[in-house]
């Protein structure tokens, strides 16, 4: 199949300038132009015109191209919402089903953008041979993903991203992947990545080093490079087997879509000025409330701490309850409701989880006697479990939707039941993942390190799966339930 698309008109003759898409798949394309030269407009024109011809994958660091989704059927993948494993699975499915997608990375910091894009492109590159379908892979701001020199990012991230871009441009052709890379500065783009392109569209640039490299790629003499500085916005010099055999000036044609939230040209100034504008700016106090005094660090001694817990857990003989007596059928349901109300009341009290279990149990028995419940048949071990349920927000262990979570909790150590059930309840109800402060409150500690060790222990035990996406949001899955919490900032 052969197809050509029109990208614009010849500056001199006005004739249509076309790109042979089939030839482009074999020879790749490099677009260069300073900010404001019309580089994104050119990429959008190519994408719009070829959308019905070939699969498209857009690496979009600024979120400029997501507006293509509705009119042209692209799927927008928000890179900040997924972790590395999920990005790998998504990229594999994209390759398998030949979906045109836009990987939007605007919600991520630079290092996370580079890592996410590298994992994504490497998965496209490593697809099975029977999935080597033709696809245009458009990378905007390519100098970010293939920098010519080390910058502010970690070396391992830079190497990972540069390797992915090199694979795309050097070895991607045999796998059906045709790179279209766009950059503001040729001098900032790795030479081994830029050199693999055989087609060029050079826009306006002003720095001598960039003009010299552009002239070399176009086969022009150095004295002719001055014309690159004089190009107007939306005008490019084109050369390559998929476009034309000699450099030609091209005025890029109009596009159907626009980038989100982009203002072209001037806007009317606001009507408010002077005192009125000052009132708007000063409407709210600028002084923040003073930060709360941080709690004093918890003093813990691991060995003695265990000993103290054993001492606190012991119940004096005078306070030990008699063996539980089976309640009558007539009063059982009413008694269960009263017990649940007492536990819920205790769980709602501030800092209740910081108190020893023995002290809480003694308080519970006193409240039961005040309610004239008599012997309720709950010993210390059963109380710890029931209190953990109340802290987690499970009022009744007979309710069907909690049965699976409570069954899983049977194999959890007594001191970990409440944190586990809090996570399970959030997963069942689709609530955001509890943050570290909430988990510390439930666990009865003020040490963030203990919460990290707690989650690590639960994950190693196979009870939970901790997931942190590229945007830094944490969610926790419960494999035994097949459910996961909503993500929240970690």
Automatic annotation (TrEMBL):
<dbReference type="InterPro" id="IPR014588">
    <property type="entry name" value="ATPase_Atu1862_pred"/>
</dbReference>
<protein>
    <recommendedName>
        <fullName>Helicase HerA central domain-containing protein</fullName>
    </recommendedName>
</protein>
<dbReference type="InterPro" id="IPR027417">
    <property type="entry name" value="P-loop_NTPase"/>
</dbReference>
<dbReference type="Pfam" id="PF01935">
    <property type="entry name" value="DUF87"/>
</dbReference>
<dbReference type="InterPro" id="IPR002789">
    <property type="entry name" value="HerA_central"/>
</dbReference>
<dbReference type="InterPro" id="IPR008571">
    <property type="entry name" value="HerA-like"/>
</dbReference>
<feature type="domain" description="Helicase HerA central">
    <location>
        <begin position="7"/>
        <end position="74"/>
    </location>
</feature>
């Amino acid at each position: 199949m052969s197809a050509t698309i029109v990208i614009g008109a010849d500056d001199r003759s006005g004739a249509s300038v076309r790109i042979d898409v089939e030839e482009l798949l074999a020879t790749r394309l490099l677009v260069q132009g300073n900010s404001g030269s019309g580089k994104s407009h050119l990429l959008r024109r190519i994408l719009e015109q070829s959308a019905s011809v070939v699969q498209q994958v857009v690496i979009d660091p600024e979120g400029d191209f997501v507006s293509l989704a509705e009119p042209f059927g692209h799927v927008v993948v928000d890179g900040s919402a997924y972790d590395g494993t999920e990005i790998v699975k998504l990229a594999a499915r994209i390759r398998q089903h030949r979906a045109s997608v836009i990987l939007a990375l605007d919600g991520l910091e630079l290092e996370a953008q580079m890592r996410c894009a590298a994992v994504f492109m490497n998965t496209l590159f490593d697809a099975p041979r029977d999935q080597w379908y033709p696809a245009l892979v458009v990378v905007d701001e390519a100098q970010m993903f293939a920098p010519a020199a080390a910058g502010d990012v970690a070396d391992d991230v830079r190497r990972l991203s540069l390797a992915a871009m090199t694979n795309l441009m050097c070895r991607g052709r045999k796998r059906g992947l045709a790179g279209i890379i766009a950059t503001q500065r040729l001098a900032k783009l790795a030479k081994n990545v830029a050199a693999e392109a055989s087609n060029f569209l050079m826009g306006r640039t002003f720095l001598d080093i960039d003009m010299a490299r552009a002239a070399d790629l176009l086969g022009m003499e150095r004295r002719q490079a001055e014309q690159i500085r004089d190009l107007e916005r939306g005008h490019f010099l084109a050369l390559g087997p998929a476009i034309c055999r000699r450099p030609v000036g091209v005025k890029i044609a109009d596009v159907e879509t626009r980038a989100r939230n982009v203002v072209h040209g001037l806007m009317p100034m606001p009507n408010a000025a002077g005192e009125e504008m000052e009132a708007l700016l000063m409407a709210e106090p600028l002084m923040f409330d003073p930060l709360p005094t941080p709690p004093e660090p918890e003093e813990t001694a691991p060995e003695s701490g265990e000993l103290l817990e054993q001492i606190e857990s012991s119940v004096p003989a005078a306070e030990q309850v008699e063996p539980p007596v089976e309640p009558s059928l007539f009063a059982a349901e009413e008694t269960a409701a009263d017990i649940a109300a007492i536990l819920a009341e205790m769980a709602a009290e501030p800092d209740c989880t910081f108190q020893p279990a023995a002290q809480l149990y003694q308080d519970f028995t006193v409240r039961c006697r005040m309610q004239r419940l008599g012997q309720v048949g709950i010993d210390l071990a059963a109380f710890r479990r029931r209190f953990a349920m109340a802290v987690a927000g499970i009022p009744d262990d007979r309710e069907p939707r909690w049965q699976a979570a409570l069954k899983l909790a049977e194999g959890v150590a007594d001191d970990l039941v409440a944190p586990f059930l809090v996570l399970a309840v959030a997963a069942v109800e689709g609530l955001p993942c509890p943050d570290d402060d909430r988990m510390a409150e439930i666990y009865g500690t003020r040490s963030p390190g203990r919460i990290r060790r707690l989650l690590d222990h639960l994950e190693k035990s196979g009870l939970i799966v901790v997931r942190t996406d590229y945007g830094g949001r944490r969610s926790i899955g419960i494999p035994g339930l097949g459910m996961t919490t909503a993500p929240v900032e970690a």
